[in-house]
Design goal:
235 residues, alpha/beta, five-stranded mixed sheet, 42% helix
């Protein structure tokens, strides 16, 4: 039987292969889209000029919720179980039941965990981004099906904590979402949806009741363990 270290190394190699394939697919799409991109760029320039002339500016709500200037503590621990335990975070695994699509955002899904870690979801996923206003759960869950890792945070956290979480997100945005969540039993949490066992996979939740510096090691380890491992391999 392979050791846990060997299993993690195999998962890392699989993830790197999927990422290489995703980058190649993205490169092909970009080549196809260059012509359309030029027209969109021109349209965007017009919009910017209009905004400047009308006094439009940045999204103050975004900077209020996710301020800049944060710092990320240096990594001390790399093993997920150890890092989660040091940060006081609880790890949870759940068999997912259902991967069907809903076609309207008014069609709400009752998820078994808070925050959600998998299940039926809206037909269009959320984009990879740091959000000042949370998308609907059904959109975020679809993103997790595509291998994304979601970091959730209480918007009531102190400003420096929110700035640090934004800095953490900015340090590695690939297949990542940062989402505020007011009504959850944690100050910080992370979720992912793994493909095994087929067909519906396993949901993963790491819930951290208290924010602190050690949370960042736990978030790093969770991200590295579960990113790009969703039931659908989508770039």
């Amino acid at each position: 039987m392979a050791s846990r270290k060997e299993q993690k190394e195999a998962l890392r190699r699989e993830r790197e292969q999927r990422e290489r394939e995703a980058r190649e697919a993205e490169r092909r799409r970009r080549l196809v889209g260059y012509g359309a991109g030029a027209a969109l760029a021109l349209a965007a320039l017009v919009v910017v000029v209009v905004l400047l002339l009308s006094g439009g500016g940045g999204d103050s709500a975004s900077t209020d919720v996710l301020p800049g200037g944060g710092e990320v503590p240096r990594q001390q621990l790399t093993e997920l179980d150890e890092a989660a335990d040091a940060a006081g975070c609880k790890l949870e695994s759940n068999r997912v039941k259902g991967r069907n699509h809903t076609t309207s955002l008014s069609e709400r899904v009752k998820y078994a965990t808070n925050p959600p870690d998998g299940g039926n979801h809206y037909i269009e996923p959320s984009d990879d981004a740091a959000y000042a206003k949370a998308p609907q759960d059904e959109q975020v869950v679809h993103s997790m099906e595509h291998g994304r890792v979601v970091i959730w945070f209480k918007p009531s956290l102190p400003e420096d904590a929110r700035a640090n979480l934004k800095a953490f997100y900015d340090s590695d945005t690939y297949q990542m979402l940062l989402v505020p969540r007011r009504d959850m039993p944690y100050e910080v949490a992370a979720t992912a949806w793994n493909r095994e066992p087929e067909p519906d996979g396993t949901g993963r939740v790491m819930g951290c009741p208290r924010y602190g510096e050690k949370v960042f090691d736990a978030l790093r380890a969770f991200r590295d363990e579960h990113r790009s491992n969703g039931p659908e391999a989508i770039p």
